Structure prediction request, 362 residues.
Amino acid sequence: MEKRESLWEAYLKRGLSRRSFLKGCVALTSLMGLSTDMFSKVVEAAENKPLPVVVWIHGHECTGCDESFIRSASPLASDLVLNNIALEYDHLLSAACGAPFEAHLDETITKYNGQYILAVEGAVATKASGVHCMSGGHTFLHLLEKAAKGAAAIIAYGSCAAYGGIQAAAPNPTGSAGISHFVGGKPVVNVPGCPPIPEVMTGVVMHVALFGTIPPLDGDGRPKQFYGNRIHDTCYRRPFFDAGMFAETYDDAGSKAGWCLYKLGCRGPETYNSCGNLRWWQGMSYPIQSGAACIGCSNAHFWDEAPFSARLPQYGKIGDADKIGVGLGVLTAAGVGAHAVASIIQRNSRDNLLESEDEHKN
Ligand code: FSX
Ligand code: SF4
Ligand code: F3S
Prediction:
């Protein structure tokens, strides 16, 4: 097996100084949501760990996740793809196509068996044996199962890969589902959001790349450093919530004054994501800052929880918001152990999903 270069060796090859390498490591430490005392570990890993091979595949989705990813500013997505990882196969970003491209996938997963990171965007279509989502002449279901077999780690980017997403909306005619039921029981890092925040996407892949392990996860398989807070916990409109000052419509005086959007259906109190602290587009803004309520795009089933403009009964009434948070917090704390159990449940669920499909056909 050829020796692949480390990030430090890649810097040297490009004629970059030790100083810029260390600056890059500072940026990576913060990007991965790690505390500064992890800096020396990041440097050590960047010096020694070979750049990881990444295979990136796309199923049922809108491609918004890649649109988000390519806007990562820190690190620049181009830098990540060209210098920090060895991206061998990507449906969207590769210039190659056709038979040679598909042959390259087979070569890559054979050559790096057990070593590559598999990044997946989009849901799996399960009905009619997966024929509703085809890729390279095969079903995406087939591609996913094939690519998952030799993966060292799997990242599910976006709410579609994590939970099924928009195409799983009732009545879900294609039987779309999240990928975790179809990866042979391997642990999956869920990075939900429709789409996820670009820097969260790069932060997660860099964590797996540098440390060779998946980051600490909560009970839903999400990296705790990015999904540990509710939008509501970090929302700059929170003082208005606490003071009971709510916009009643999108054009009333409260709305114009920036009051809390809870009564307009804001799902911030039950949504875990980094939008309130990292924000989007280099920290410029996020939905609530632009005047729109959070629709909970990183939550499972958010697509069926309409109308987005109303509080729904399952979310409780005003005043119950913090109780909802406590409930979710307990689930989160139960996290890592529950994730192992979840893998077993997911394996069973895969069979159930495909069985229910067979019943459907009979
Ligand atoms: Fe889904 Fe992503 Fe939403 Fe779109 O790849 S999470 S529909 S932004 O594109 O999968
Ligand atoms: Fe912010 Fe929404 Fe919470 Fe109001 S309900 S404080 S707008 S997250
Ligand atoms: Fe999505 Fe809500 Fe953030 S809608 S982008 S989780 S503020």
Summary: The chain has three domains: 7-227, 233-311, 319-361. The pocket of iron/sulfur cluster (ligand 2) is lined by residues 231-232, 235, 237-238, 241, 260-262, 266, 268-269, 288, 294 (CB under 6 Å). DSSP finds 14 helices and nine strands in the chain.
